[in-house]
Amino acid sequence: MPEERAVDIIGIEATYEDEVLEVTGESGGIDIVLEEPVPEESDLYVAMNLVSLAEDQRFTIHINSYKTSRKSNVSIYKTFVDDLTLRLPADDTIRIRLRQGTYRLTELAVYEEPYDVFRAEVADATGGNDFEWDGSRIRVDYRNDENDEFLVLPVPMKWAGQRK
Length: 164
What we know:
By secondary structure, the protein is mainly β.
């Protein structure tokens, strides 16, 4: 299971108090600094609930080299699914940047998932699951008799980024 990491949070052109992030600079936010270094062969997962408190303002979240846009609170396309979990390559500092404004930032947590967990699961896989490729679709009959936490399937690299 992923391990939650202890972190320090530092405001960068921003303050973060009582789950309210007030970004005062043009592109401020927080740096999340891991208290212990993370091995290069690990991934980090950053989980949070982030809501803009502006009534009608789209915004973009920059997290290290990743970015995603969020709809305005009055947009007819707004889903109000504000929980985010992002996978990032190992880094001792996670930089979250937002445009100037006020945000509610709750449930902030950082988890580490070492690759050795995945390697061990692949090595232990029995191959007892039935699967069938049909073009770009796969049908799987997954028998989880031992209540395992992982499912190991072959996914051709050609389709790895095109999962539906």
